[in-house]
Amino acid sequence: MKGRGLMGKVAVFSYPYFGHVNPTVSLVKELVDRGEQVYYYTADPYMKFIRMEGVICRSYGDVIGLLDEEIPIRSTDPIEILKLLVPHKLDKYQRMTNLLIERVIEDEPDYIIRDCESYWGKMIGIMLDVPVTCYITTIALNETIMDQHTDFFVRNVLGNPAGQFTLPVEGTRFSEVLNACTRELSRPYSVQYKAIDAFSGADEFNLVFTSREFQPYANTFGSDYLFLGPSIRKEEEDGDNYHELMSSGTLVYISMGTVYNDCLPFYSKCINAFRDNGWQVVMSTGQRINTADLGVLPGNFIVRSHVPQLRLLQMADVFITHGGHNSTNEALYHHVPMVIFPQAADQFAVSGRVEEIGAGVVGNSRECTPEDIADMTIKVLTDPRYRNSCQEVGQAIRNSGGAKLAVDGIFAFLNGQMLQSTDTGCL
After folding, report:
1. Does 166 reside within a domain?
2. Which end of the chain is more exposed for a tag (fewer CB within 10 A), N or C?
3. Cα(128)–Cα(104) distance, rounded to whole angstroms?
């Protein structure tokens, strides 16, 4: 095994979507700066973000169709969800492993770093008998949260608004029930797959791109989870500078992200909520919407398929968002309170945490009216406690250890150690 600070080779298995690739850029740069040879596996469109001296990019090939395959989950029952989710995920992981294994063997990595969604990295690590570190690009989960905060897990992870689940046998733990089901489902794949693996990272050592202050139930995590804080992008160089908005009074910025943004009815509601009310509104609709379908726009609206988000957040008074982890932390970093309408995935847990710490409010994009949107926005604009909470968490983000702490943690792990609270100040 390679020693800390000695040149080594690492294979990084990304999950090829911007919100998963972006946090790894600074991590990879830090690894290269410390003399590591990095083999970075991703899809072709994301290689431009990671190309740098010391990095060899490896293409996944044409796999986006495979990774984008939707799972038709219409139940909120945990067991029914696992019955659909686990075979689908493991089949995908096995196909990716078979696709990549020969190339990885040729690279001869000393260790592996993998996205929590790229479980094939763990499968390959087991096959090659090399250490594996998992990185989590959103809030982390563990079995203690499953068992001690079951309502949180059922509501925010499994999508059951009631947050309730009746154990089949009284006295058993929720994680035991889910793991028993997962063991049976994963048996044909010859892997030791646990229920937590279907929802988060749970390897021997895990990096979390979340500040400890933002992580729900942070005290349930040990030294095998290292909280780095989010990776905040550098400001975009392209696009309008929007400087004229700095003196335009109240500025509302609206974006539903880059994935679950096919939200034409919601965008129309926003237009009606703020039509000619004296505020300036900038709305990013993404590539799935034809802006002509929004009709004639009010004079106080600027609507684009893409805007430079970091530039807008430096000027915005409030951010109406889907609650994606990257967008949420960029807003906190710039002290912008949020009105959140989560759409899918981790956005329910992230938005719940934002509301819990007092940095914003949460609504339902399908059920809300334009009046609801306007009222929620006025609430976070006029109550200074929302911005104050953003400032507190934003400062914690700025003080986080980031990529340097991550590589310190990886090297300690490779030497059979774990960073303790005296080493990091944040565990």
Report:
1. yes
2. N
3. 9
**Which residues does residue 321 pair with via DSSP β-bridges, in sequence order?**
255, 340
DSSP state of 153: H
Element (H, E) at 253: strand 251-255
Element holding 103 (H helix, E strand): helix 78-107
pTM: 0.85
Q: What is the dihedral of CA 246, 330, 259, 227, to 10 degrees?
A: 180
pLDDT, tens digit, 9 for 90 and up, residues 410-425: 999 999 988 753 344 3
Q: In the beta sheet, which residues pair with residue 251?
A: 280
Residue 164 has pLDDT above 70, yes or no: no
Q: Does 260 or 303 have the greater pLDDT score?
A: 303
How far CA 399 is from CA of 199, 285, 327, 424, in Å, comes to 28, 32, 19, 11
**Separation CA 180–CA 293 (nearest Å):** 49
With respect to residue 235, please indicate whether it lies within any of the assigned structural domains: no
Element at 10 (helix H, strand E) = strand 9-13
**Chain length of the chain:** 427
Which pLDDT does position 424 carry in this prediction? 41
- Backbone phi, then psi, for 92, in 5-degree steps? -65, -45
- In whole angstroms, give the CA distance from residue 272 to residue 269: 5
| Structural domain span for residue 317 | 243-398
| Same-domain check for residues 295 and 358 | yes
CATH number of the domain that residue 313 is part of = 3.40.50.2000
Instruction: Give CA–CA dist 221/231, Å, rounded.
Output: 21
Please state at what angle helix 370-382 crosses helix 264-274, rounded to 10 degrees.
60
Are both 139 and 258 inside the same structural domain? no
Domain count, the chain: 2
Question: Do 266 and 408 lie in a common domain?
Answer: no
State both tokens at 321. 């968002």
